[in-house]
Write a structure and sequence with these properties.
alpha+beta, six-stranded antiparallel beta sheet, about 120 residues, two-stranded antiparallel ribbon, 2 helices
């Protein structure tokens, strides 16, 4: 019993297979339905432009902050939701644009990996 499940490993061997990690990445991408951002004190909904696993294995989720909705105001918050309107990710920001006619491509990166402590 000495080598059993200590620090997330059994005898120094990883428990998660690449199949499980890839399945978790896929589930994450499929769970995200839409984004919101706050600008000028008002919340706006945004469509997810892309959700992909990039070359280094991270999940990349992007959406566009539309300049026609926010004018030149500072973006102060961004969030991701699932199809049931449940909050998945939330982050305070301070994003200002030099030009009120510019949109902003906002991208979240998520790392899905087994961590040993």
């Amino acid at each position: 019993m000495r080598n059993m499940a200590r620090n997330g490993r059994i005898g120094g061997i990883s428990l998660f297979t690449s199949t499980l990690l890839n399945s978790m990445r896929q589930h994450m991408m499929e769970s995200i339905s839409y984004a919101t951002y706050t600008a000028g004190g008002a919340e706006h909904k945004a469509r997810i432009e892309s959700a992909d696993v990039i070359a280094d294995g991270r999940v990349s989720v992007s959406f566009i902050i539309d300049p026609t909705l926010t004018g030149g105001e500072e973006v102060t918050h961004v969030s991701l939701y699932d199809e049931n309107n449940a909050l998945l990710v939330s982050r305070d920001e301070r994003i200002a644009r030099a030009d009120a006619n510019e949109g902003i491509m906002y991208r979240f990166y998520f790392t899905v990996e087994e961590v040993f402590s």
